[in-house]
Amino acid sequence: MSGTLVLVRHGQSDWNLKNLFTGWRDPDLTELGIEEAMAGGKALAEYGIKFDIAFTSALVRAQRTCQLVLDAVGQSSLETIRDQALNERDYGDLSGLNKDDARAKWGEEQVHIWRRSYDVPPPGGESLRDTGARVWPYYLTDILPRVLAGEKVLVAAHGNSLRSLVMVLDRLTKEQILKLNLATGVPMVYKLKADSTVASKEVLGDMSGAH
């Protein structure tokens, strides 16, 4: 039997709260974000899972979320691999800007296209397709083999890097993935078949905002 893959989007960050484009910038979690990460960890503890390895991004909001989840399941010292392949989508010139200011500068329609198209990147940044182009190879070489070997693997990362994975796992179209919003701090538990396709998927905890 193949293993289990658990995906968790980081809790609310300080810049989420301020309505700023974050991307590869590195703000920490808010108090609410800490609570969200702890709630996700509590849901996993109640689910009864113990992990063999954890993966997270090079950004502190995902790393903090990962650690809070591991603390909650009683595995504070678990081996954790950090890699920028799992970083949030790079918003380029939009990074650090208030979303309302960006709309004032470039126009509502253009900012909407950058945020919600599949393959149109903002200036100096990445599209969702570009994000997937670095997430997918890393998943295939570093994460998936461990799941297929029967391990239980935690991935704590970001809205867009995780959407790239969910797109493949759930076999979503470009149109479907653009409509998908992942709730913060809510674990998605995938059990995989030997051929790497999904045998089952469970979303633990609060479903509000998950669709």
Please describe the topology of this protein.
Blueprint: E1 4-9, H1 14-17, H2 31-47, E2 53-56, H3 60-72, E3 80-82, H4 99-106, H5 108-116, H6 128-148, E4 152-157, H7 159-169, H8 174-179, E5 188-192, E6 198-203
Parallel strand pairs: 1-4, 2-3, 2-4
Antiparallel strand pairs: 1-5, 5-6
How would you sum up this structure in a few lines?
The chain has 211 residues and is α/β, with parallel strands linked by helices.
CATH class: Alpha Beta
Which regions are unreliable across 5 or more consecutive residues at pLDDT < 50? none
User: Which series of helices and strands comes N to C?
Assistant: EHHEHEHHHEHHEE
Q: How many DSSP E strands?
A: 6
Folded structure, characterized:
By secondary structure, the chain is an alpha/beta fold. It has a single domain, classed as Phosphoglycerate mutase-like (Rossmann fold), CATH 3.40.50. 42% of the residues lie in helices and 14% in strands. It has 8 helices and 6 strands. The protein has a 6-stranded mixed β-sheet. Strand 5 and strand 6 form a beta hairpin. Helix 2 packs across helix 3 and helix 4 (99-106) crosses helix 5 (108-116). It is globular and about 50 Å long. The model has no long low-confidence stretch (mean pLDDT 94).
